[in-house]
Design brief:
The longest helix has 22 residues, at 90-111. Helix 1 packs across helix 2, helix 1 packs across helix 5 and helix 8 (214-234) runs parallel beside helix 9 (236-244). The chain has 9 helices and 5 strands. It is mostly helical and 245 residues long. It has helices spanning 19-37, 40-50, 73-82, 90-111, 113-134, 146-156, 181-197, 214-234, 236-244, and strands at residues 61-63, 67-69, 141-143, 202-205, 208-211. The radius of gyration is 20 Å and the shape is globular.
């Protein structure tokens, strides 16, 4: 066989992330650029205004300059999503981008672009709900995509095969049930890695940063529970049904 007849080498899927993942990473980078290019006082106000603070969801909060106030509906709704896109430092941003490339790419290929973005936000919302419930009334603002990323890991745990060659992934690996050893193994590894690294989600307490575990658990549970319906309506099973129709 001549050199011209040789088939092209197989593309590495990790290095060819879907456009939806790349655009999402671009949003995270753009938001962080705004944070670091703004004056320190403005950057701090952005973090405080758009971080997820459980105290905001109690009936009243104490503001040093205003006394006791009742948060508006926007004060309670916007941070449920805005906190996901904020980063406290470059390390947190880097972890977010790497995890999106690794697990977001797999989920985006499985569900499609629009469903992937919806799934990402819903997992972040589920993580926020758990964080608020377990830290009810506490003034500990949290930023970062740890919950949404945990949801992506949970979804990927149901179909990704670590170490599989590219040709072994065709057409698509099956979707594992929740009780499968594969899902339990992924969950254990993710929990240990998250507790060890701890930089993809951060709580804000004045000028300090604190690791928060609640969004990791909430996002992972949301991802496990939502991945089934998303697979049914948007995933490989749905494509098979449409092909057979």
């Amino acid at each position: 066989m001549s050199l011209e007849d040789e088939p092209p080498p197989a593309r590495q899927r990790f290095l060819n992330a879907p456009a939806s993942v790349l655009w999402l990473i671009a949003v995270f980078v753009a938001v962080y650029a705004v944070q670091i290019l703004s004056p320190p006082a403005v950057a701090n106000r952005l973090l405080q205004a758009y971080a997820l603070d459980p105290a905001v969801y109690s009936m009243r909060i104490v503001v040093p300059t205003l006394g006791t106030v009742t948060p508006s509906l926007a004060d309670r709704v916007v941070p449920l999503f805005s906190h996901i896109f904020l980063s406290v430092d470059l390390v947190q941003l880097g972890f977010t981008c790497v995890w999106l490339l690794a697990f977001g790419s797999a989920v985006a290929r499985r569900f499609g672009a629009a469903a992937f973005l919806g799934f990402f936000l819903l997992c972040g919302l589920g993580a926020a709900a758990i964080f608020i419930a377990l830290c009810w009334g506490q003034n500990i603002g949290m930023v970062g995509a740890s919950g949404a990323l945990s949801g992506l890991v949970a979804a990927a745990s149901r179909f990704m095969r670590i170490g599989a060659a590219p040709e072994d992934d065709a057409p698509e690996p099956p979707f594992a049930p929740l009780h499968s050893p594969q899902v339990f193994a992924f969950g254990a590894v993710w929990l240990v890695a998250s507790l060890t690294l701890g930089d993809i989600g951060a709580g804000l307490s004045g000028a300090s940063q604190a690791f928060v575990w609640q969004p990791l658990v909430g996002g992972y549970l949301a991802g496990l529970l939502l991945s089934g319906p998303f697979e049914h309506y948007f995933g490989y099973a749905a494509r098979l049904r449409r092909a057979g129709a």
